[in-house]
């Protein structure tokens, strides 16, 4: 499955409405691509509580209460069976027919109504007509109790599925919907509580201990600790200093604080994340798409097979009895219902998305859960992925005044957000900087500009080579990251910068190898530095001194060799490589808007170990989805054969159908309890 095939998914509804609309329109006939006119919408508007309302409004208890007609029907059936079969009290035929017709109508009137409206529109092959045909057939041959039982247990199966959909949606919504609905804003006339969407950039907001931050802000208080678990999946408190960014969804832990709003409510990182995960439910995995197409073909086939079972024996069986073979055809119809597949598989993928989200991993679609199971090569950037990206100045060497050298360099670097540039700026924290002019960023090289009337170049050695500036050759031997500086066309000195490898990076590489995955590191840093880090972590291959186009060439070479790869980087500078990879994984999604836009998978807490967790989430999801497929198909195949041979009755058929659906649903829920 190529990335290009997955990036343009079929757009549907987000989690809040997708299953509700689909199932209100189709029950459990999840065929794709049908057009539903207004009459069809009216047919399936189950807001009155008497049909299959998968919207889940009002919760599970109200959903159960709304099915009063179903429960009354079940009471009538069980009472009749108790009296006639267990107590063996004779029941006259008119009374039996009256009771069973009443129970049948109470349980299935909505299904029957929809079936007839579908038939009027020449839509014969759907679940409603399948169940109506089978149950009316049972009444025709005098098996009243069995006909009622089929309809009741079909409706109970629908109820189980409604409850499952509700639970799935609630678990994901509870996981993600962490935005507060009010915020306290500091005004001249006093504090005022408003809706976060009414706050504007620059407002000062007050957050008490235990409260959630409602908007992306800047911390005005000297320091504060926050619980970031809702965003990163990390329970360890994060302490921030004055001036640090604080994101919506974080929980203030220890003291009242003041924050200055920096981003509108709709543009906050949290809002983007919520939108991304909601959209993820619309991006279907190939398995889901296959099952949808399969159900569309499968239903008419079983109708004709049931008809053949009923009619064809007339030409080959000497003692042919129509009612006997009609009964076998009805058993075939009941057991062929594809409910277990068409509901448990989407639930499985929703569970996978929820499992990953709880661990700070955001998938942009269930299709990428499948992609991660097939990855055999993981290509990683170095800075910010395997290393902390928090650089610190180690040494300053210059043939001019050190303070002047640093002031000029930091002034030029002040226009850059690169971690190396930030290290130089932080080293000059609190000191006055100049405003640079005519600044030009040269990709993969560094910066060019004017500071205080002087022409400056600041970057790597390739930058000086590009402008034919000579420098001491011995500095090529320095393994640390360096910023070399030229002033007015002459080499002026260098600054060494040190980065730090992330604590879990080595274990992440070891876990990838345990899964049989090849590891590769691509870096724009010097090759000597790249090789040193690769050796320390045990990475299989490493390449340094790479410009963005060099990374693309390396990744393309792996693709040409037939590798299925994921690229892990910052999602911004490495956008071309992210697009080329089968799955683009972004580290540090909370720090970059562009990351959320470009990556297929976002790891929110920057931990390399979560790359392996993402793979495990995909493997767990895929395993359980295929367990459900095999379970459903195997049981149905066995009971279909037994039904066609006259061994299985309608009772076995309906219990097998509902039972398999329930087992598949429960199995799908196991995903959310897994550890990755």
Describe the structure.
Residues 179-278 form the P-type ATPase A domain. This is P-type Zn(2+) transporter. It is found in: Cell membrane; Membrane. Residues 1-59 are annotated as: Disordered. It comes from Dyadobacter fermentans. The protein is an alpha+beta fold and 676 residues long. The chain is built from 24 helices and 22 strands. It has a seven-stranded mixed β-sheet with strand order 10-22-21-20-11-18-19, sandwiched between helices. It has a six-stranded antiparallel β-sheet with strand order 2-1-3-9-4-7, with no helix packed on it. A six-stranded antiparallel β-sheet has the order 12-17-16-15-14-13. A hairpin with a 2-residue loop joins strand 1 and strand 2 (190-194). The radius of gyration is 32 Å and the shape is elongated. Residues 1-58 have low confidence and may be disordered.
**Percent helix among the residues?**
40-55%
- Count all strands and give the number: 22
| Estimated radius of gyration | 32 Å
The oligomeric status of these chains comes to single chain
Sheet of most strands: 7 strands, mixed
**Which regions are unreliable across 5 or more consecutive residues at pLDDT < 50?**
1-58
Mean pLDDT: 79
- Going across the major beta sheet, what is the strand order? 10-22-21-20-11-18-19
Shape: elongated
Distance between the termini: 24 Å
Please outline what is shown here:
The protein is an alpha+beta fold.
List strands and helices in order, with pairings.
Blueprint: H1 3-6, H2 18-26, H3 38-43, H4 59-66, H5 68-86, H6 93-120, H7 127-140, H8 144-176, E1 183-187, E2 190-194, E3 204-207, E4 217-219, E5 223-227, H9 229-232, E6 238-241, E7 245-246, E8 251-252, E9 257-261, H10 269-280, H11 286-311, H12 322-335, H13 339-358, E10 361-363, H14 366-374, E11 377-381, E12 392-398, H15 402-413, H16 419-427, E13 437-442, E14 446-451, E15 454-459, H17 461-466, E16 481-487, E17 490-498, H18 505-514, E18 518-522, H19 527-537, E19 541-543, H20 548-560, E20 565-569, H21 575-580, E21 583-587, H22 593-598, E22 601-603, H23 609-644, H24 650-669
Parallel strand pairs: 11-18, 11-20, 18-19, 20-21, 21-22
Antiparallel strand pairs: 1-2, 1-3, 3-9, 4-7, 4-9, 5-6, 5-8, 10-22, 12-17, 13-14, 14-15, 15-16, 16-17
Helix pairs in contact: 4-8, 5-6, 5-8, 6-7, 6-8, 7-8, 7-12, 8-13, 8-24, 11-12, 11-13, 12-23, 12-24, 13-23, 13-24, 14-23, 15-16, 18-23, 23-24
Keywords: ATP-binding, Cell membrane, Membrane, Metal-binding, Nucleotide-binding, Translocase, Transmembrane, Transmembrane helix
Transmembrane segments: 68-87, 93-112, 297-317, 329-356, 624-644, 650-669
Protein name: P-type Zn(2+) transporter
């Amino acid at each position: 499955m190529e990335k290009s095939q997955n990036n343009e998914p079929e757009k549907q509804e987000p989690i809040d409405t997708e299953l509700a609309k689909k199932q209100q329109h189709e029950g459990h006939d999840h065929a794709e691509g049908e057009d539903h006119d207004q009459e069809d919408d009216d047919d399936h508007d189950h807001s009155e509580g008497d049909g299959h309302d998968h919207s889940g409004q009002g919760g599970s208890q109200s959903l159960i209460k709304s099915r009063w007609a179903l429960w009354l029907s079940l009471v009538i059936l069980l009472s009749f069976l108790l009296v006639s079969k267990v107590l063996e009290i004779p029941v006259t035929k008119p009374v039996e027919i009256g009771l069973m017709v009443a129970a049948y109508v109470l349980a299935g009137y909505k299904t029957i109504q929809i079936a007839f409206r579908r038939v009027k529109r020449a839509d014969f092959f759907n679940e409603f007509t399948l169940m109506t045909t089978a149950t009316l057939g049972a009444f025709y041959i005098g098996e009243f109790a069995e006909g009622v039982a089929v309809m009741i247990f079909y409706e109970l199966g629908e109820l189980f599925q409604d409850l499952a959909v509700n639970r799935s949606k609630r678990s994901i919504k509870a996981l993600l919907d962490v935005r507060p609905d009010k915020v306290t804003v500091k005004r001249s006339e006093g504090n005022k509580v408003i809706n976060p969407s009414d706050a504007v950039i620059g407002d000062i907001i007050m957050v008490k201990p235990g409260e959630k931050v409602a908007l992306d802000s800047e911390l005005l208080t000297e320091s504060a600790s926050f619980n970031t678990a809702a965003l990163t999946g990390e329970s360890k408190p994060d302490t921030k200093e004055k001036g640090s960014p604080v994101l919506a969804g974080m929980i203030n832990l220890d003291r009242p604080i003041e924050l200055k709003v920096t981003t509108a409510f709709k543009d906050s990182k949290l809002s983007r994340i919520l939108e991304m995960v909601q959209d993820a439910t619309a991006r279907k995995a190939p398995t889901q798409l296959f099952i949808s197409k399969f159900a569309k073909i499968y239903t008419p086939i079983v109708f004709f097979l049931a008809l053949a079972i009923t009619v064809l024996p007339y030409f080959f069986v000497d003692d042919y009895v129509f009612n006997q073979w009609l009964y076998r055809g009805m058993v075939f119809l009941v057991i062929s219902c594809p409910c277990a597949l068409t509901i448990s598989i989407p639930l499985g993928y929703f569970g996978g998305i929820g499992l990953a989200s709880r661990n700070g991993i955001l998938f942009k679609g269930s299709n990428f859960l499948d992609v991660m199971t097939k990855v055999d090569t993981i290509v990683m950037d170095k800075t910010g992925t395997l290393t902390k990206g928090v650089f610190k100045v180690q040494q300053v060497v210059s043939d001019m005044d050190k303070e002047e050298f640093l002031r000029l360099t930091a002034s030029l670097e002040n226009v850059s957000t690169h971690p190396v540039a930030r290290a130089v700026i932080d080293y000059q924290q609190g000191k006055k900087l100049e405003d640079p002019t005519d600044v030009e960023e040269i990709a993969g090289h560094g910066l060019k500009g004017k500071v205080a009337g002087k022409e400056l170049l600041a970057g790597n050695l390739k930058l000086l080579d590009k402008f034919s500036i000579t420098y001491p050759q011995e500095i090529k031997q320095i393994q640390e990251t360096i910023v070399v500086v030229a002033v007015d066309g002459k080499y002026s000195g260098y600054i060494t910068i040190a980065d730090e490898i992330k604590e879990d990076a080595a274990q992440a590489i070891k876990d990838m190898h345990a899964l049989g995955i090849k590891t590769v590191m691509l870096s724009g840093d010097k090759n000597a530095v790249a090789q040193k880090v690769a050796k320390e972590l045990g990475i299989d291959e490493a390449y340094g001194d790479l410009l963005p186009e060099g990374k693309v060439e390396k990744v393309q070479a792996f693709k040409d060799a037939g590798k299925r790869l994921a690229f892990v980087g910052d999602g911004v500078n490495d956008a071309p490589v992210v697009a080329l990879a089968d799955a683009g994984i972004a580290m540090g999604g909370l720090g970059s808007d562009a990351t959320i836009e470009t990556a297929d998978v976002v790891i929110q807490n920057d931990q390399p170990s979560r790359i392996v967790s993402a793979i495990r989430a995909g493997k767990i999801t895929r395993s359980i989805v295929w367990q459900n497929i095999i379970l459903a198909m195997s049981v149905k195949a066995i009971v279909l054969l037994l039904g066609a041979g006259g061994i299985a009755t309608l009772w076995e058929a309906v219990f097998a159908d509902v039972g398999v659906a329930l087992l598949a649903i429960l199995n799908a829920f196991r995903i959310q309890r897994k550890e990755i």
